[in-house]
Amino acid sequence: MEHQKDSKESFLKERASSNKGLLAKYVFFFCAILSIVITGAIIFVLLSDAIVFFSHISPIAFFTGTQWNPLIKPEHYGVLPLITGTLTITLGAAIIAVPTGVLTAIFLSEYASDGFRSIVKPALEILAGIPTIVYGYFALVYLTPLLSGVLPTIRTFNALSGSIVVGIMIIPMVSSITEDAMNAVPNSLREGGYALGATKFKVSTTIVVPAALSGIISSFILAISRAIGETMAVTIAAGKYPRMVNLLKPDEAFLKPVETMTAAMVEIGMSDVSGQTIAYKSLFAIGLTLFGITFLMNLISNFIKSRYREEYE
Description:
Blueprint: H1 2-56, H2 59-64, E1 68-69, E2 76-77, H3 80-111, H4 114-125, H5 132-148, H6 159-183, H7 187-195, H8 200-211, H9 213-228, H10 232-238, H11 250-255, H12 261-269, H13 278-308
Antiparallel strand pairs: 1-2
């Protein structure tokens, strides 16, 4: 009787465990399908309204035009000023975030003690939790006046302040993903370097970093994608002045206001234009362009990660 009781309890436990596993499977499946449906719905909305826009405005005129002015007559729908403005902010942010994030990751992965890392890493990741509008007002109220003391020709709204705050925002992404990639490198590679007489700096820069290169490059691309899609911080700090930016002239490129694609979408969305006008439909054309750029960046990141990833036994 005791043996039958134990067998029955064991059977019930296995059945309950199996039911929990089956429930978890369906929940995960539902979440996966939901994410695909939401993504598909977003693409459908962007495409349906963008097609209406392109039925009135030539795609060639849209992608090659150098004037953007959809709200005041005569209207112009050339997206190039918005693209160059976006790329200016992204380039400036990458110059700040990439080296800072990589050096921070090297320190946390190779030099910092476990106790110090447990304090510094969460503190660093707090930067990613600060609302972006706070970054924007910080740049406008504090950063730009500070820069004006060094650069007298800087405007109140400028690309440099926007680049700096966006760069600060994406540092945690670069450092966190880079550190994870470096921590995945087996210690045997480090020990082999030390056995050959290499210093910690030499091991970190010539063994660990190259071994984690695929993850590091992926962090760069994902962080850049994040910078491309930034909205409120750039809108407040960099202004809303669509112009063609010449990156060969940094003083003109970064010290004057620019308008990014996201800022233009905010401006159109908050205006009083009718939802059936071409000006309003241009919002979705910009969104589709932005979606295409970020999607391409993610594809490149996945390709690099799969193509150059090192596998260790």
